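User: Hi! I'm working on a homework problem where we have to compare a predicted structure to a textbook description. Could you give me the structure for the chain below?
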Amino acid sequence: MSHGMEVIEIQNYLPHRYPFLLVDRVKEFEPDKKIVCLKNVTINEPIFLGHFPSQPVFPGVLIVEALAQAAGILAFRSRNRTLEDGYIYYLAGTDKTKFKRSVVPGDQIYLEVEISNLRNHWMKAFGKAFVDQKLVCSTFLTCAEQKVK
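Assistant: Happy to help. Predicted structure tokens:
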């Protein structure tokens, strides 16, 4: 198991930046196997201006996106690559996505992604998101690798 990473190092593996970088910290990493990340949800996020002003709820699709970003870090690090190597991982599909409860400002989302199948140019993984050890979302992810032109 490898050391964690803070957001500055995470930016070596993900092309996303504010306001769309949704992984704040990597807590655990096992190459070709698993990653555990954190996403802190704060009222300052631009999404809450419209979703929903009087009852702020973090969108489910952004929870899936955070899981996909964690999967991207897992794929890059499992291949010993960074963005500088000229590759990017795209979310190519989700399946059997379920949302169990709402995520609100002040929550910390615990993102866990485990590889089920890693091939040359794609990866299948199972992602789970928790708040206070309660499942909020689960989904199967497919990520595709592409060479950046």
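For your comparison, note the following. The mean pLDDT is 95. The helical segments are 7-10, 60-78. Good luck with the assignment!
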